Amino acid sequence: MTLKFQSHYNLASNITSMALHEKEEKGDQRISRAKFFLIALVCSFTWYAFPGYLFTTLTNISWVCWIFSKSVTAQQIGSGMRGLGVGAITLDWTAVASFLFSPLICPFFAIANVFVGYALIIYIVIPTAYWGLDLYDAQKFPIFSSHLFTAAGQRYDIPAIVNDNFELDIAKYKEQGRIHLSTFFALTYGFGFATIASTLTHVGLFYGREIMDRYRASYQGKDDIHTRLMRKYKDIPSWWFYVLLAVTLAVSLVLCIFLNDQVQMPWWGLLFAGAIAFTFTLPISIITATTNQTPGLNIITEYIMGIILPGRPIANVCFKTYGYMSMAQAVSFLQDFKLGHYMKIPPRSMFLVQFIGTILAGTTNLVVAEWLLHSIKNICVDDPQSDSPWTCPGDRVFFDASVIWGLAGPRRIFGSLGNYSAMNWFFLGGFIGPVIVWLLHKAFPKQTWIRLINLPVLLGATAYMPPATALNYNSWIVVGTIFNFFVFRYRKEWWQRYNYVLSAALDAGVAFMAVLIYLSVGIENTSLTWWGTNGEHCDLAVCPTAKGIEVDGCPVF
């Protein structure tokens, strides 16, 4: 059985592969796609030496901070990395594509949904909550932060509330008080609740009938041209999948049962995580295929295990990893199989490549990560003044999430013992939202734009924030709009021929230069120190604005 939805990611991969094997037609005056790819790659490779090493401030040009160097509020508004990013620009492709991936391969309707959701949250909800309502004592904390705070606006001393078994020390927790979040961080979780709820409703209403029709058609032998062409190859035996599932499940159960002191997750947690991943893989795959945006299961898995086993962060992290990564890997494998389907690659070859590649990549990643942790001094130290590229913003968010959902538990943050119980209403809003859009679509069928309202994408617009920043989103939206709206509309022939090739070339050029920079100067921790490598110059953006709150390096109001 196959359910087919167009994937823009696969289009980019296909066209890039075609470009590298394209034969030039005689008399064609246009530059070939292979030559265009090479030129763009060399330009991307050469330019990245500047924002990547020589002039790193080009990554985030926050001119508002330069003008208002003594104003906390102005820097909160103008900082691209730690504020709202008003006026901040970037000349670094990694800042554009690092979190939301290349905007050149994302359809414009999805970009528009992200823009609406992002603008609503960042430029309406957050300023209103922070400066207008002082929601949850917002002004005691930075406007944009994933850190955890005390009621006095100081960083929460997390090691002080952890016992020797990496579990919550209730007495120490009561002594230090409740954990507080920045208003932005709290609202990000609220919109995350809405996103996962809206995903189920949206897919059920807008794609439910199509799913059933394609399900029936697959059993009735009604195949498209690609499926008929693929029949010349031997299909993958079902027992290959069953054996792989049995082996991986057995190994994971051994970890949970015999190494429970380290894993801390009961064996049934593994099965439960797998069931959640199985339930959400189809709806999330459909959202990914149609919008190139992938809602995550991290929040819902953290929430569930946090309710079941509060005070045990290691168990929570393991449950989240098994639940989230099972779904994410399934979606990734489906993308690869769809690519093979388009390119007419034998299914058995695709399976073996994926299997071997996963083992090699997983082993290599583990070895490299272990080596980096022991060879780079102060790796993952969160210092705003540091010019080190090894600050690990994603890992900081991962750690803080383990404290919120695992160590403290949802009840002490989003429940009756916490400050943010109102965020749970976002589940209901996310569930009802697609119903309203669907009813409007049925009531006004001629208004085709209504169907393009994709609430899982709109509500989940800021799902990557933090660690993604306003700079990442602003640049991604602008570049995506230029190419997938203006260039697509007014230079469509150029767009069809070169757009996806340009995307791949920009990614490849940056990747090659990043490796070269690391091997030549990064491995020796050799850095340049001058004005152009001192970050975005928005040091006051992390300061609170409430009266009487004292934070190092910040003025007291």
UniProtKB/TrEMBL annotation:
Pfam family, any one: OPT
Domain of life: Eukaryota
Main subcellular location: membrane
Transmembrane segments: 36-69, 81-101, 108-126, 184-207, 239-260, 266-287, 351-373, 422-441, 448-465, 471-488, 500-521
A GO CC term attached to the entry: membrane
Classification via InterPro entries: Oligpept_transpt, OPT
GO BP term (any one): protein transport
Keyword list, A-Z: Membrane, Peptide transport, Protein transport, Transmembrane, Transmembrane helix, Transport
Compartments in which it is found: Membrane
GO molecular function terms attached to this record: oligopeptide transmembrane transporter activity
Annotated membrane topology: Multi-pass membrane protein
PANTHER family: ISP4 LIKE PROTEIN (PTHR22601)
Record family assignment: Belongs to the oligopeptide OPT transporter (TC 2.A.67.1) family.
Protein name as catalogued: Putative oligopeptide transporter, OPT superfamily
Origin species: Rosa chinensis (China rose)
Record lineage: Eukaryota, Viridiplantae, Streptophyta, Embryophyta, Tracheophyta
